[in-house]
Amino acid sequence: MNAVTATGQVRATGAWREGDPPGRRLWHPAARPLRLEAGGELPGPRLAFETWGRLAPDASNAVLVLHALTGDSHVAGPAGPGHPTPGWWEPLVGPGRPLDTDRWFVVAPNVLGGCQGSTGPASPRPDGRGTWGSAFPFLTQRDQVAAEAGLADALGIDRWALVVGGSMGGMRAVEWAVSYPERTGALLLLATTAAASAEQIAWAGVQLRAIRADPHWQGGDYHDTPHGPRTGLGLARRLAHVTYRSEPELATRFGRAPQACESPWQGGRYQVDSYLDHHAAKLVRRFDAASYVVLTEAMNAHDVARSRGGLPSALSRVSAPTLVAGVDSDRLYPLAQQQRLAALIPGADRARVVESPYGHDGFLIETEQVGSLVRELLN
């Protein structure tokens, strides 16, 4: 389930594809086409998801966990067949942990448009003519939340005890609370925003250009070829990863040191270059460039106030007890964005601060502080 098969064959994408080991995934195939906010519809969308714990007879103990841009449904559990990496929020989910699976039924879908089992550009077209590729439609966060509402219906969950998400997952979490206030029992928004800012769109735009400039992009129709835009996706990841961390952390970890025996004066790398190369290679093995494009464009389109009479009016719909938290060193989603959400959501108090040197990624790394917020809402 990555860009190199078990037989050593290089694939054009790191997406999960039919015939790969399913791992812990379950699937929800929608019975009807999904009408899209930008117009048209997506026929037969399917969501991959994972669950932990047991649903109560009255379905009152369900928690929805929503992943960020390059995350997936594998919130907890080891790497293995079907799952190229361990769970991305492992310390939060399990018996005795903040999302205590002896008490709570935790559900984590792979976002619509993603590449780890849900319908996306790497998925087969319904007519059997190859993969979606460039024909995959434009999605918004509202479309993705509508698909997740269909999953909740199929599971018999009328109301989530908690909806939690960070970064892109936080965008969907706030859309859940505004679109379906009666179905959102409590809300935790981490390192996210009410609308993508000009600077966030600008950073994302450079990443999209890097992918589309790769000669193997082929207009997005590369999935059924031996090659894919791995170079462009790797460049996008390098740039994104710099925005995910903080300058002080990079300075402390790497400074100006060269990598091992390499000399930057003779074409070698600095340690920070090697670090970015490592993260680029990891992503290319497990992700799909076209999904990166689709999901990034959906993030750029995020504006919870769109067609809702302005931001105060939109957020006034939120009826759930809410905690909004940001990371003090986050330069991509700065604290002012979380403070604005907290000020306008009726059920929120002040914006909470996660103290971390790690920048935006702090919401993934500082699990003890995030776990305390989860416990506060659920208790």
Task: Give a quick precis of the structure.
With 379 residues, the chain is an alpha/beta fold.
Please summarize the sheet with the most strands: 8 strands, mixed
Tell me roughly what share of residues is in helical segments: 25-40%
Number of contiguous helices: 11
N- to C-terminal separation?
39 Å
Poorly predicted runs are: 5-9
Task: Note down, in words, how this protein is organized.
With 379 residues, this protein is of the alpha/beta class. 33% of the residues lie in helices and 11% in strands. It has eleven helices and ten strands. An eight-stranded mixed β-sheet has the order 1-4-6-5-7-8-9-10, sandwiched between helices. Strands 2-3 form a two-stranded antiparallel sheet. Helix 9 links the parallel strand 9 and strand 10 (352-354). Helix 3 runs antiparallel to helix 4 (230-244), helix 3 (198-213) runs antiparallel to helix 7 (289-301) and helix 4 crosses helix 6. The relative contact order is 0.15. The model is unreliable at 5-9 (pLDDT under 50).
Topology (elements, then pairings):
Blueprint: E1 26-29, E2 34-35, E3 41-42, E4 46-52, E5 62-66, E6 105-109, H1 141-155, E7 162-166, H2 168-179, E8 187-190, H3 198-213, H4 230-244, H5 247-253, H6 271-286, H7 289-301, H8 311-315, E9 322-327, H9 335-344, E10 352-354, H10 362-365, H11 367-378
Parallel strand pairs: 5-6, 5-7, 7-8, 8-9, 9-10
Antiparallel strand pairs: 1-4, 2-3, 4-6
Task: Kindly list the characteristics that best describe this protein.
379 residues; 8-stranded mixed beta sheet; two-stranded antiparallel sheet; 11% strand
